[in-house]
Design a protein that fits this description.
The C terminus is likely disordered. 67% of the residues lie in helices and 4% in strands. Among the domains are: 60 residues, no CATH class; 102 residues, Serine Threonine Protein Phosphatase 5, Tetratricopeptide repeat (Alpha Horseshoe), CATH 1.25.40; 49 residues, no CATH class. It binds one DNA strand through helix 1, helix 3, helix 5, helix 7 and helix 9.
DNA sequence: GTAGGGTTAG
């Protein structure tokens, strides 16, 4: 006869494998249930999104066992993962005794759903914060593209004595630096990682994050150095290096590395192929790109997703093979999205191909998109072909739908400052003379704002 | 034996 702990272990095993029905079967058959049995079962339903069942078990949980914090927290997480924040919040508010996990569950619930001001309000309010609280907030800022806020929060985190950042914290911070192309801050984080003896080749994938950061900051040499010094490589580190070479225009090197990866016996995944396809696109390697695209499913059993088709279409489109690119779009098992149609429309403009562009227009208008870029492109294609009536009709459509073209922007880091540029923007008057020169040399872009680094002393320490 | 944080293209 199994004891209750063994029953619970097996139930948890099923739950972790996503087999809630089997778990429930055991739960119903077990001779005696305790608090942990109920918690595991409720957590299983909540985690798999079966919230109505979770709720009914939650309501039926015997008073003698009593609902514990674990059960409440599972319900909060379950609702939050489904985006049902008011329901999650109701459990959070109603629970008799919240612990730090309850606060963190609610905060990450807000963060996952892009509600950073709500997350921040709770974060500021909570009685004490641990590394998970801080990391949830930092990753929340990263996920909502608020990279400076993420770095700023890390500075504040270092001021609090009783909490130490860990590998998970670093991954989000490196992502921030990568997105901002903030090399100096990225280097500082690298030094921090070394100083705190964090491992680059653990399951936390710090190595991949570092390679990614250096590559996105344009330091291919540093990225390669980190990559080559890793004592153990996993698919993420290979991916980061292959993509890193690709985005820096080193197409042949990227393809070579992909070949090296295959020889090493490492198993590529969907992101690996994305990287190598991108390399082919950048390098104009049409034949190889086709080959790798085909290889995905027949040699590796990876079904191409929209983003892979996107690379293929981009590759063919840039090479002027617009009919074949259109064919690729037609062969997709899924409905083409705005991005992929837009990529091919862009190619149609460059290669002045009106027939393909017109056929794509039909698909495009079906999507009823709010994305201005593609409308503008289409209008430009018509204009380039001298079809002014069609061009202005598209422009009218844009106005009617109330779509505004968002200007493109970019940023760079200089002496620890992050500069942001927005095309056509003239709002910033205090442009230093040397920056003006840079801006002038780099074309029709104007300085928008100069962002001082947060707590400069930290980055320089 | 049950609950909370993660990055990978443009």
């Amino acid at each position: 006869m199994l004891d209750v702990v063994s029953w619970n272990t097996i139930i948890d095993g099923y739950v972790k494998a996503g087999l809630t029905t089997s778990a429930r079967h055991l739960f119903d058959r077990m001779p005696a249930r305790n608090e942990v049995s109920w918690s595991a079962m409720i957590g299983g339903y909540a985690g798999s999104g079966e919230l109505d069942v979770a709720q009914s078990l939650f309501d039926r949980m015997p008073a003698s066992v009593g609902r514990n914090a674990v059960t409440w927290n599972s319900m909060i997480t379950g609702f939050a993962k489904q985006g049902l924040l008011p329901l999650a919040r109701k459990f959070f508010d109603d629970m008799p005794e919240r612990n730090i996990v309850s606060w963190n569950a609610m905060i990450s619930g807000y963060a996952l759903n892009g509600k950073m001001s709500s997350a921040r309000a709770l974060f500021d309010e909570m009685p004490e914060r641990d590394v998970v609280s801080w990391s949830s907030m930092i990753s929340g800022y990263v996920q909502s593209n608020h990279y400076r806020e993420a770095l700023e929060l890390f500075n504040q985190m270092q001021l609090s004595r009783n909490v130490r950042p860990n590998e998970v914290t670093m991954v989000s911070l490196l992502s921030s630096c990568a997105h901002l192309a903030a090399l100096e801050q990225g280097k500082w984080i690298h030094a921090y990682i070394d100083r705190n003896k964090m491992r680059l080749d653990s399951d936390d994938n710090l190595g991949a994050s570092l390679v990614d950061m250096y590559a996105k900051c344009g330091c291919v040499d540093s990225a390669v150095k980190v990559f080559r010094n890793l004592s153990h490589r996993n698919v993420s580190t290979w991916n980061a290096m292959i993509s890193g070479l690709a985005i820096n225009g080193l197409a042949d090197e990227s393809v070579d590395l992909f070949e090296e990866m295959q020889r090493s016996g490492a198993k590529p995944n969907d992101i690996t192929f994305l990287g190598v396809l991108m390399a082919c696109t950048h390098g104009g390697l049409v034949d190889q790109g086709r080959k790798y695209f085909a290889m995905m499913s027949y040699a590796h059993g990876i079904e191409p997703q929209m983003k892979h088709y996107g690379c293929l279409v981009d590759l063919l489109g840039r090479a002027g093979m617009l009919e074949e690119a259109e064919e690729a779009i037609r062969s997709m098992p899924m409905k083409p999205d705005v991005m992929i149609l837009g990529a091919l429309l862009g190619a149609c403009r460059i290669h002045r191909n009106v027939p393909v562009a017109e056929r794509l227009t039909v698909d495009f208008l079906e999507l009823n998109s709010q994305e201005a870029g593609c409308h503008v492109l289409l209008s430009n294609i018509y204009a380039a072909a001298g079809r002014w009536a069609d061009a202005s009709q598209i422009r009218r459509l844009l106005r009617r739908r109330g779509i505004k073209k968002v200007p493109g922007s970019s940023s760079l880091e200089l002496d620890g400052n992050i500069y942001e540029f927005v095309s056509g923007d003239r709002s910033h008057q205090k442009t230093p003379r040397y920056m003006t020169c840079w801006i002038k040399r780099s074309g029709n872009r104007h300085l928008k704002g100069v962002h001082q680094p947060q707590k400069k002393s930290y980055w320089m320490k």
